[in-house]
């Protein structure tokens, strides 16, 4: 026998053990004492010791009259204290722990919570059996009920803590961050959100199918139900392809080309339906200054209704798009912005803080493959000034073509000095200064070096062409030039080149 399972096994003189006796209800002494735990709690494991109210989690030592793990009264009391008597009037004990019994046994007593207590009569009774004295059952049941209630209350509190405390992983079923604060989604009209809310309903997305080629881009609705966009967005449909326009309410319709101008990279298309979309407000690009806040809206990479913001980074930035001397070569005197513009933004509006269009997003500068192959926005976007776009759109709606601004000179592409030099001799049968043209009438000669246009220093031929193309026919230019080491000034009235209608779908 081990200490944990030790039980009494005494016999009386007739060879009977306690299991041979019954109480006054005809029941044998209980084989084990019931033990109640809250739901989810485990029963005591072997090795735990019973405490004052049952099994304890803290390992209190056993007291008098408690139940052992074998289901019998413990034997750690003194002789006769609720133990079983043998014929000699002694109680079996571990003499190594308690020593031999001393003196005669005391009168029989009731073991706490276990019914009748067994002990020999005073002075002993050799050869005689003693019947157990019945114990008051009512008192025993009351005491048991109190113990069970106390035990359930204590372990119930422990169980509640164990169920609600955070586990070792940091999860807490009762964790909450509370309700979101109250607020409003209304924004001031001059905020970015306010500008976007005003402009978005007028911006559209274009999908072009040219059969062998396709393109996507953006545009915006103007007076008369027309849509302004870039020429390079719709060029694939010029031979007879299809154009689908999606509005901000996600409704779509087909559209046809009204006119396009490759040199300015502008085009006008007419959707079959506008679904009540409002026309956009056009601003004045001459009033734009560097540092003004701007918002770009379009469908980069097909992401309809994308809004980005930035500032005007520079003005009159010369941009040449396409191959030089090609029919689709574009020269722009552009508004530069750091608002994110990506493929698919082309043709969309660049607007000011009042929601007015100041430019048409048309081009971006990217890093070459040798610098990592980046092809998205790097903060260098370019927009056609709206004053130039306004004139081109009007002419395309009215005539299907737009006039090309010119001053009637050819430029020396081999010149590397300051400014831009007019050719000094004819090439390919073309005179350097067109006879009776705008430059000839202003007094410019072959070999003159143009230094400034309207106070803007000219650095190369691309910049000069872009500045001239940005002006409308009939506008005046103040030209500073150098001839024979001397600087001179002339006033040139911009002329218009003869134009041929661009091919349109039949």
From TrEMBL:
GO biological process: proteolysis
A Pfam family: Trypsin_2
Compositional bias segments (type: Basic and acidic residues): 1-11
Transmembrane segments: 141-163
UniProt cross-references to Gene3D superfamilies, sorted A to Z: 2.30.42.10, Trypsin-like serine proteases
UniProt-annotated stretches for the region Disordered: 1-120, 170-189, 423-444
EC number(s) stated in the UniProt entry for this protein: 3.4.21.-
Keyword terms of this UniProt record: Hydrolase, Membrane, Protease, Transmembrane, Transmembrane helix
Stretches assigned to the PDZ domain: 408-485
Molecular function in Gene Ontology: serine-type endopeptidase activity
Coiled coil: none
InterPro entries: PDZ, PDZ_sf, Peptidase_S1_PA, Peptidase_S1_PA_chymotrypsin, Peptidase_S1C
Family named by the database record: Belongs to the peptidase S1C family.
UniProt-recorded name of the protein: Putative serine protease PepD
